[in-house]
Amino acid sequence: MIVIENGSGVVGANSYATTDDLITYADVRNITLPTDTKQLEALLIQAMDYLATKKFKGKQVTELPFPRTGIGCDNAIPKNVIKAQIVLAISAINTPLLADKTPQNSQQVASQQVGSVKVTYHDSKNTKGADSPVFTQAETLLSDFYDSSKSGPGGVGVAFLTRS
User: Fold this and answer.
1) Which of 24, 55, 91, 133 has its Cα between 20 and 30 A from that of 114?
2) What is the pLDDT of residues 113-123, one digit of tens each?
3) pTM score, whole prediction
4) How many angstroms separate the CA atoms of 80 and 75, rounded?
5) How far is it, in rounded angstroms, from Cα 97 to Cα 100?
6) Which residues of the chain carry a pLDDT beneath 70?
7) What pLDDT was estimated at residue 147?
């Protein structure tokens, strides 16, 4: 059973979006969802698990990533965060959001050059492999809330591609 966080610090909350929110979003986009309420709830909780791995601005004040202080929307769940949870829940139908992967590059800094193309990897303590899915729509929705003092979106590492 999901318990909705509304920004007031609801005890036991595990979702920002309701199953009705998920159904409405998918329906207007002609996206097919499971019909079982428990499956829909599980998708929303998987999306919340993904959100909980991210590094956001401000200070966390509940067990969930939002609400937060210091980001201009204290005691509220931003609409883009709710929408990101819904988008991630839909992605979770066919793609594991938190697949265990072996790190591709565990060194602090490594460079590789082939011809005129040079790639530099920065360690991110990221446990996802290079073939991990990227949830572009959700990441875009969340981008205003990411802590820029961490490397990359949501505190994950980055690779730089340069031409020499």
Assistant:
1) 133
2) 666 666 665 55
3) 0.73
4) 15
5) 10
6) 101-132, 149-164
7) 81
Distance CA 97, CA 90 (A): 10
Local structure of 16: helix, strand or coil = coil
Residue 56 contacts residue 68 (beta carbons within 8 Å) = yes
The range of the structural domain enclosing residue 39 comes to: 19-91
List Cβ neighbours of 10 (8 Å cut-off, separation of 6 or more): 3, 4, 62
The token pair that represents 30 in the structure block:
């002609």
71-103 pLDDT, tens digit each = 887 778 999 999 999 999 999 999 999 877 555
CA dihedral 68, 84, 145, 58 (to 10 degrees): 20
Is 135 inside any structural domain? yes
pLDDT of residue 113: 65
| Tally of domains within the chain | 2
Residue 128's closest CA among 158, 84, 87?
158
* Dist. CA 100–CA 84, nearest whole Å: 21
Q: How many of the other CB atoms lie within 10 Å of CB of 8?
A: 12
Q: What is the DSSP letter of 155?
A: G
